[in-house]
UniProtKB/TrEMBL annotation:
UniProt xrefs under Gene3D superfamilies: Vaccinia Virus protein VP39
UniProt keyword Phosphoprotein present: no
GN (gene name): prmA
InterPro entries the UniProt entry points to: Ribosomal_L11_MeTrfase_PrmA, Ribosomal_PrmA_MeTrfase, SAM-dependent_MTases_sf
Name under which the protein is recorded: Ribosomal protein L11 methyltransferase
Length: 305
């Protein structure tokens, strides 16, 4: 078994938010997208005279996602991930009316067990799997990325990552130059290299993600050029970016400008209801279409002329 370098940190970090009922669902989905290990919602007014009970019919889900004032607790594997989630959430339109109550370490005495039980091998296609280092490779897995959950987003368990991976697995990438913008763990860049792309750049604003991507590339026997965003110098045949909708909108001129002639732009991290805003933001350069959808998230792709 390979050493699981990312399991060394014994502490989880809690991001505690207060949110009005209408925002709880969007907030929980976004925390999930930001690689929270778990998200739980409780009544902010519990044990007070205005406490509300939420009862569903027996056998049916609760009638609402949250209480009038909900406490949303998300656990992260690192302080950096919790801080980044906080910053990205603050920039989202649905954060209005929400507030951050705490960002603090929480003791976790059985982190290895918790992590290992939460991350099983993930099939992307019947023959392409993401497999943690402590698992045997499933017999059906002909193409494999070995990846452990750690300090950077991207384990293959989230729909936004899975949709990008499915897209990569369907493309003839031989001879193409690929950029993974916002690489996190490097999972998309590693997949592109495994699916025959000869030149792959992976960039992130978070230096820990850059390091993690390089570590994961070495452990998967692929070559990536990793670095901070300045490393990205177009034109690329494929630009992949799985970031949230607000930063993707702001980065429209930059990302569209990195795509070469007949190149592909692949954007993820976008909720269904945000697709048209993104299409409008990129319209001066590229015509984004919905190429895939999963659990309320969409994958938007465009081909340059
Ligand atoms: C949702 S994670 C995606 C990770 C991985 N590519 C995947 O698909 O699972 C988004 C990543 O984008 C990075 N990021 C956020 N804003 C960025 C920006 N303006 N420039 C570069 N990277 C950014 C974050 O640090 C984070 O690692």
């Amino acid at each position: 078994m390979e050493p699981a370098h990312t399991l060394a940190a014994p502490t989880l970090f809690e991001l505690l938010l207060q949110a009005p009922e209408a925002q709880v669902e969007a907030l929980s989905e976004a925390l999930d997208a930001l690689d929270a290990l778990s998200v739980s919602v409780t009544d902010a007014d519990a044990q007070t005279p205005v406490e509300q009970a939420l009862f569903g019919e027996p056998g049916l889900p609760a009638p609402k996602a949250g209480w009038q004032r909900s406490l949303v607790q998300a656990l992260f594997a690192s302080e950096a991930a919790a801080c980044e989630a906080q910053q990205l959430l603050r920039a989202q339109d649905f954060f209005e009316g929400c507030e951050v109550c705490a960002l603090r370490p929480v003791a976790d005495t059985d982190w290895v067990r918790l992590t290992q039980t939460q991350f099983e091998p993930v099939p992307i296609t019947p023959s392409f799997w993401i497999v943690p280092s402590w698992h045997e490779v499933p017999a059906a897995a002909l193409q494999v990325i070995r990846l452990d959950p750690g300090q950077a987003f991207g384990t293959g368990t989230h729909p936004t990552t899975r949709m990008c991976l499915r897209w990569i697995a369907q493309q003839p990438l031989a001879g193409l130059r690929v950029l993974d913008y916002g690489c996190g763990s490097g999972i998309l860049a590693i997949a592109a290299a495994k699916f025959a792309a000869p030149l792959v750049d992976a960039v992130d604003i978070d230096p820990v993600a850059v390091q993690t991507a390089q570590f994961n590339a070495v452990h998967n026997q692929v070559q990536l050029q990793t670095g901070l965003p300045d490393l990205a110098q177009g034109p690329y045949d494929v630009v992949l970016a799985n970031i949230l909708a607000t930063p993707l909108k702001l980065m429209a001129p930059l990302l569209a400008g990195l795509v070469g002639r007949a190149g592909h732009l692949v954007l993820s991290g976008i909720l269904e209801r945000q697709a048209s805003e993104l299409q409008a933001a990129y319209a001066p350069w590229l015509s984004l279409q919905i190429a895939d959808a999963e659990d309320g998230w969409v994958l938007l792709t465009a081909r340059a002329p």
